[in-house]
């Protein structure tokens, strides 16, 4: 029988080889764990890279929805305050965690004019810093009154030239009323500058803006053009009792101080009064608006209000058309008027002023 060499080897010689095998086993286990951890980290990194665009889009969509919710609530609260008595309003809190609220001045300029009597056609032209000219077809215009922020003033009309020298600083808004010799108002002209609010939200591709101005809503993404999701309040109706009615509501929002952002932004929305320069039957109505948010906004306003006119013009039925029509050029660049085929036109204009502050 051949003896086993290892059984005859002294214990002192067997220990080093056994320790070597145990050390080799221990090292390979550590390397395995390290490689497994590296693999897990690599997989997790790949999953994160793959999912990151979807997570970013989800966050952008959430923030965009929140911004639109803020705009909806602001519109509702402004409407409530605008219909309230002067000096009253509401207190409201907005969650502005990812958005910022700002006031924006001088966004729109509205010009509205109409004759109040059918016995004359009056037009006010040649506006300068200190004067204007009143043109009266039947020469019934005698004097004017001018209402602005500082009060009401009266001036005579030069009967030879129609010139009115007022030397007033007419800035944001004014109402000019023309009177005849019997102190009866025969014509009115309005200029009113509108301010509004802006909601700014940071998204993955840049800032998203919502402009709230004069009952309208205008939106803009960083990678797209401005879009109108809601138009100003201009309504034309045919009355069951005969005649037609044109209603225009202007809402001016003035911001006192900074609004900014906060998890819970508390703001006061207070009515600052209203004006009703037109209410009743009018003649030779003309209105125009200039929006400064972007060059594409004003033409879209005119296109919206003249859409029915454009359809009737294309179909050759303008002879029987009743509604809004361009004043001169078909684009509406010179203003918009009303055609009624001899029916009386009832014209209502309401100007509401709202103050927003923290």
Q: Could you spell the SSE succession in H and E letters? A: HHEEEEEEEEEEEEEEEHHEEE
Helix content: 25-40%
Percent range for β-strand residues = 35-45%
Radius of gyration: 36 Å
The tally of helices reads: 4
Structural class: alpha+beta
Mean pLDDT rating: 85
Overall geometry: elongated
Total beta strands: 18
Descriptive tags:
13-stranded mixed beta sheet; 18 strands; 358 residues; three-stranded antiparallel beta sheet
What report would you give on this structure?
This protein is an alpha+beta fold and 358 residues long. 26% of the residues lie in helices and 44% in strands. The chain contains four helices and 18 strands. The strands form three sheets. Strands 1, 2, 5, 6, 8, 9, 10, 11, 12, 13, 14, 15 and 18 form a 13-stranded mixed β-sheet that branches. Strands 3-4-7 form a three-stranded antiparallel β-sheet, with no helix packed on it. A two-stranded antiparallel sheet has the order 16-17. The longest helix has 72 residues, at 11-82. It is elongated and about 110 Å long. The mean pLDDT is 85.
Record the SSE blueprint.
Blueprint: H1 5-8, H2 11-82, E1 89-94, E2 99-115, E3 122-125, E4 131-136, E5 143-148, E6 151-156, E7 163-165, E8 173-179, E9 185-203, E10 206-213, E11 216-220, E12 227-230, E13 233-238, E14 244-256, E15 265-291, H3 297-305, H4 307-315, E16 323-326, E17 336-339, E18 345-357
Parallel strand pairs: 14-18
Antiparallel strand pairs: 1-15, 2-9, 2-15, 3-4, 4-7, 5-6, 5-8, 8-9, 9-10, 10-11, 11-12, 13-14, 15-18, 16-17
């Amino acid at each position: 029988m051949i003896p086993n060499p290892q059984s005859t080897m002294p214990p002192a010689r067997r220990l080093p080889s056994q320790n070597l095998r145990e050390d080799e086993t221990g090292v390979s286990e550590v390397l395995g764990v390290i490689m497994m951890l590296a693999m897990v980290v690599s997989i997790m990194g790949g999953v994160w890279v793959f999912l990151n665009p979807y997570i970013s889009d989800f966050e952008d969509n959430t923030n965009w929805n929140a911004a639109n919710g803020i705009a909806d609530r602001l519109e509702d609260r402004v409407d409530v305050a605008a219909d309230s008595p002067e000096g009253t309003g509401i207190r409201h809190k907005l969650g502005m965690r990812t958005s910022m609220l700002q006031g924006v001045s001088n966004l729109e300029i509205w010009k509205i004019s109409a004759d109040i009597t059918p016995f004359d056609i009056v037009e006010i032209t040649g506006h300068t810093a200190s004067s204007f000219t009143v043109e009266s077809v039947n020469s019934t215009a005698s004097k004017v009154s001018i209402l602005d922020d500082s009060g009401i003033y009266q001036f005579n009309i030069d009967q030879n030239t129609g010139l009115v020298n007022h030397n007033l600083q007419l800035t944001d808004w004014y109402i000019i009323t023309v009177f005849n010799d019997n102190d009866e108002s025969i014509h009115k002209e309005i200029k009113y500058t509108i301010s509004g609010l802006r909601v700014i939200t940071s998204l993955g591709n840049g800032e998203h803006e919502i402009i709230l101005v004069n009952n309208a809503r205008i939106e803009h993404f960083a990678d797209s053009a401005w879009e109108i999701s809601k138009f100003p309040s201009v309504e034309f109706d045919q009355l069951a009792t005969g005649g037609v009615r044109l209603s225009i509501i202007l809402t001016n929002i003035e911001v006192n101080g900074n609004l900014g952002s906060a998890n819970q932004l508390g703001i006061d929305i207070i009515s600052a009064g209203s004006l009703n320069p037109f209410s009743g039957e009018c003649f030779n109505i003309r209105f125009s608006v200039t929006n400064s948010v972007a060059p594409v906004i004003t033409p879209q306003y005119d296109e919206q209000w003249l859409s029915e006119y454009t359809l009737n013009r294309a179909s050759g039925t303008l002879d029987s058309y009743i509604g809004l029509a361009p004043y001169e050029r078909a684009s509406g660049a010179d203003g918009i008027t009303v055609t009624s085929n001899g029916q009386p036109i009832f014209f209502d204009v309401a100007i509401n002023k709202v103050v927003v502050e923290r």
